[in-house]
Amino acid sequence: MMLLQWFIFPPPPSVFIKAMSVISLTSIAILGFSEMRGKHLNYSKFWNSNSQNSTSKRQIKLSGRAGMLLLYTPAFLAAFISLLLLPHHHIRFVLLNSALALHFFKRIFEVLFVHRFSSDMVLNSAIVISLSYFSSTSTMIYAQKLTQGLPEPPIDLMYFGIVLFLIGIFGNFYHHYILSNLRGNGEKEYKIPKGGLFGFVICPHYLFEIIMFVGVSSVSQTLYAFCFTIGTFFYLMGRSYATRRWYHSKFEDFPQHIKALIPYIF
To answer: Start and end of every 3-oxo-5-alpha-steroid 4-dehydrogenase C-terminal domain (predicted)?
Structure first.
């Protein structure tokens, strides 16, 4: 805790923020470990991973595009509306709010104009993820609002965070663009992606998303933001591990040297 005091604002006397910090970290991390064990949220290539379960056959399914829009739109609206309506007296609050709005706007733009969808999404999974994004975005903004008037952390990570955020958001978009060009019009089969960092890890878009959220946390420097980012890291680690395992099962010629998330390490 003494070390953390150099990097984060003093936690506000808010039971809600403290509870949400614990809930976000643990719940999102648990989802990541569930992914490793083969229990997936049903979207992307795992959209029907639990189809052998009789109850899953009765679940409502959305198109991939509609499901992804449901994921990101509420969080974008939360960030955009708060940026417009909430009074802000510190550049850190404006930067955090703008970064969150830009991130989810980019995701909506990709859903509408970049991604090519080959699968559906189960409504239950879409709702879980959408609520997670919306609640975490709203809580992060609220936690930042509570820091106004408090002394700044001794070590200022704000400008470092801006650099990481820009690296993360551009790297994430670039690798999403590569994925979108793997299939031609009307094609639905999966292919081994190539280009960018795909020669080193199967999920470089996840790696850059983590970098982006580390940047957001560094701009924020609140306990909640770092807790959410740590939870997100564990979730995307589990999801990338499951994705690599899926590629190994589908393609006999999948390169063994390609890791899941971190080049040469994991």
So the answer is: 157-266
Rg (CA), the chain: 19
How is residue 205 annotated by DSSP?
A: H
Cα–Cα distance measured from residue 175 to residue 27, given in angstroms and rounded to the nearest whole number: 27
DSSP state of 263: T
Helices (H), 42-122: 64-85, 91-113
Summarize pLDDT for 164-223 with one digit per residue, the tens: 999 999 999 999 999 999 877 667 778 899 999 999 999 999 999 999 999 999 999 999
| Segments of the chain assigned E as strands | 61-63, 120-122
In which band, very low, low, confident or very high, does the pLDDT at 54 lie, cut at 50, 70 and 90? very low
- Residues 222 and 21: their CA atoms lie apart, in Å, by 10
Domain-wise residue ranges, the chain: 4-250
C-alpha span between 152 and 177 (Å, rounded)? 38
pLDDT at 131 over 90: yes
Exposure b/e, 91-116, CB count within 10 A at least 16 = b = ebbebbbebbbbbbebbbebbeeebb
